């Protein structure tokens, strides 16, 4: 069939549908709603997926985190019985010695102290860390340097500031200047590059805000400030930590290393639950599995919505065939074959669903923008979120238009010409 004949057939189909504008619009309303729902749900789902994956990737897929946790009264009693000292520097040494696939390790200790001269809008977090923390966490320096091993050994009163803290302090936050942290003066030796955080509304992981953090050497902390922790008083030691981060050399070794770290910690802490093991790679895989399940649910909902719309179009097309029986007879009498009649009604059905799909797509994009602006959610409109609903609408038009088209083609031309 030539292009001209296809265009002619489409023009005839459109003319026939426009004779019943309201009925044609009502027949595609189900498809419009179905496609709109599909576009909106896929875009919102992709946005939620992007937020979650960004948060997990910021932690590093090769990293393993061991975090200190607060203890209940029963757990405190168990810790006393087993002589567990909580998360400490000895744990890091055991892990590095016991797991050969670990490439780097660093630790961090949260501190309860204040930085003098900051604006009220800044909520600084002062932490003491080991020299390798910036390398493990891929923290970049804007100016100066990070905490060095020499700073730890000599217990130097030096600090590295996040970009927001340095900006709030102005000239006093530049490398070489001195600021007051708690009761002591610290020399600023570096300023971090600004980190754009990708934290969603429903975070599955906690990502540190390095822009509002100040780092001092780990060995400097015990004699200067009080540790910020919920652990009981008898567990507070000079080597108490809030977090240990270990980095595995190869991604494929992460799970094996995590199992080994878990066993080392269980033995060292005598099964006392005073720490939490966090493996971003496992969280990433779990998020991907959850997203696949979510996509299946979305597909089922979309299928039901478009199924309802397709049934509506099939009903309308069957009614149209009944009303246009005489027209079918005339066309057959002047030479149209059954294939021509079937193709004509099939084109009408597909045109209805494609028109409904386009309208639904535009309405869905508008709904996505409204949801994003009002609810503040991250939405991602991808190629598939626009193409897939249109493709499904096309298939629905063929599937549900095929039966009415065949019914029209089976009409006896003699009987059709006698039809009033």
Describe what you observe in this structure.
- The chain has 420 residues and is of the alpha+beta class.
- It has two domains: 3-55 and 286-418, no CATH class; 61-280, no CATH class.
- The chain is built from 13 helices and eleven strands.
- Strands 1, 2, 3, 4, 5, 6, 7, 8, 9, 10 and 11 form an eleven-stranded mixed beta sheet that branches.
- The chain starts with a helix and ends with a helix.
- Residues 200-204 and 227-236 have low confidence and may be disordered.
Helix proportion: 55-70%
Query: Total domains, how many?
Result: 2
Shape: elongated
Query: From the alpha-carbon coordinates, what is the Rg to the nearest angstrom?
Result: 33 Å
What structural class do the secondary elements suggest? alpha+beta
What keyword list fits this structure?
420 residues, alpha+beta, 2 domains, 14% strand
Write the layout of secondary structure elements.
Blueprint: H1 3-18, H2 21-59, E1 63-68, H3 73-82, H4 89-98, E2 102-112, E3 125-129, H5 133-136, E4 141-144, H6 149-154, E5 158-161, H7 163-169, E6 178-181, E7 184-192, E8 213-217, E9 226-227, E10 243-248, H8 254-269, E11 275-278, H9 280-323, H10 325-333, H11 338-375, H12 383-409, H13 413-418
Parallel strand pairs: 3-8, 5-7
Antiparallel strand pairs: 1-10, 1-11, 2-3, 2-9, 2-10, 4-7, 5-8, 6-7
């Amino acid at each position: 069939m030539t292009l001209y004949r296809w265009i002619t057939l489409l023009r005839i189909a459109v003319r026939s549908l426009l004779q019943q504008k309201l009925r044609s619009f009502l027949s595609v309303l189900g498809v419009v709603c179905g496609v709109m729902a599909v576009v909106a749900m896929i875009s919102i789902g992709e946005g939620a997926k992007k937020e979650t994956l960004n948060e997990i990737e910021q932690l590093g897929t090769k990293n393993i985190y061991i975090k200190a946790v607060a203890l209940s009264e029963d757990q405190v009693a168990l810790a006393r019985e087993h002589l567990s000292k909580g998360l400490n520097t000895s744990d890091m040494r055991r892990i590095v010695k016991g797991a050969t696939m670990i490439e780097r390790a660093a630790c961090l200790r949260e501190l309860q102290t204040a930085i003098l001269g900051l604006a009220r809008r800044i909520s600084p977090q002062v932490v003491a860390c080991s020299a390798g923390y910036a390398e493990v966490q891929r923290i970049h320096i804007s100016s100066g340097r990070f905490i060095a091993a020499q700073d730890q050994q000599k217990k130097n009163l030096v600090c590295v500031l996040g970009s927001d803290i340095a900006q709030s302090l102005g000239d006093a936050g530049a490398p070489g200047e001195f600021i007051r942290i708690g009761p002591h003066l610290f020399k600023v030796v570096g300023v971090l590059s600004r980190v754009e955080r990708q934290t969603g509304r429903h975070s599955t992981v906690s990502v540190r805000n390095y822009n509002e953090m100040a780092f001092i050497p780990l060995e400097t902390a015990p004699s200067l400030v009080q540790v910020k922790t919920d652990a009981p008083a008898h567990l507070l030691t000079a080597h108490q930590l809030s977090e240990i981060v270990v980095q595995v050399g190869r991604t494929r070794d992460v799970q094996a290393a995590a199992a080994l770290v878990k066993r080392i910690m269980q033995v060292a802490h005598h099964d006392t639950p005073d720490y939490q093991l966090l493996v971003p790679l496992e969280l990433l895989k779990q998020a991907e599995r959850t997203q696949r399940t979510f996509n299946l649910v979305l597909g089922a909902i979309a299928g039901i919505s478009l199924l309802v719309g397709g049934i509506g179009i099939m009903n309308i097309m069957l009614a149209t065939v009944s009303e246009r029986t005489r027209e079918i007879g005339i066309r057959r009498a002047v030479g149209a074959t059954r294939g021509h009649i079937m193709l004509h009604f099939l084109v009408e059905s597909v045109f209805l669903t494609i028109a409904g799909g386009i309208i639904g797509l535009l309405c869905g994009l508008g709904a996505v923008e409204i949801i994003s602006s009002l609810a503040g959610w991250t939405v991602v409109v991808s190629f598939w979120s626009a193409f897939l609903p249109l493709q499904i609408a096309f298939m629905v038009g063929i599937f549900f238009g095929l039966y009415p088209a065949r019914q029209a083609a089976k009409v006896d031309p003699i009987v059709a010409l006698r039809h009033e």
